[in-house]
Amino acid sequence: VYHSSFVDEEGITKACGCPLLPLKSHIKGPAPVSEQDKTDIVDEAITFFRANVFFTNFDVKSPADKLLIYLTFYINVALKRLEGCRTLAVGTKAIINLGLEDIPVPGEAGFPFPGLFSLPPSQEEADLFRNYLKQVREETSGRLLSVAYRANGTPNKWWLAFAKRKFMNVVVL
């Protein structure tokens, strides 16, 4: 299993036991802005996805690993949505629709990993975590489209083939 390199937590805000790591993003949200030349958690999730998706167990070594698990699951969900999309335009539409869906937080029905994150002690923390997840999902979706489709807009079968995998035996509908 590949683990996150973000183990230093000094100065990082947390919500539900998850660090709100900086992102190289233009999308508005609660995440701090990272330098464009540095690797962020989304880069790690996409880079490690094809290796990590084969594992049924994931030993959490740092709080950032929790976010890596969540993003690996989200990439798996996104690839399932992209599976039947034969062009980049159709895939983009599918990903935008995925981004419009409600995002459950720990303690709510539909959250994929109960027990991985702590329950939010307040509604403010739940909203902060939901907004961070929304921002990180949108950023991941945009970057995923650039690897799941080639420059000419055709699907990259070496990525979309991973839509058939189940990450940590969690079934994606």
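^ that was protein a. below is b, sequence first then the tokens
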Amino acid sequence: IDSVHPIKDKEVILSVLKELAGLSETNNGHNRAHLAQKLIATIRKMNAESLSTALPEALEVSRPLVYQALFQCGTPECTSAILRVLRTFDRSSIEIDAAVYAMGMIATPSRDLVEEMLKTAKYKDSKPIYYALSNAVRRLYEVEKSITPEIQGVADYALEQIGDCTGNQEHLYL
């Protein structure tokens, strides 16, 4: 039912987030829990484009609250948003590796997740990210029972990186 009436106005999420961020630490825990649930429910109803548009301003309001809500949201749109945010971090950030690695453990990855993970692997190539991507591809193949365009994209990228096997041996191993 949530997908029947998607939220397209970024102001909806921003108003809930501002209200939640404005609560004092001593404020009633019930209000905080209610607003946190409302924020997650609102994000779940947003399509990818609307969420992407709202994200920069939302992160300015409260990075920790946005991260918490996106991780709890669970929709493919939220997972994609997390990976897009991670690609704004400095490439040396260990947080990218940790978050992508965790996402690689999702039991039934979506095509969107594999596509976003590939974009992240292109942004930062590391063992944890490549492992997570390969795990997500394997699980997606188990679900789809065919080679999807996303799986083919990962295979093409891997072959491009390997080339003729004459390059940097550490990179080829990676």
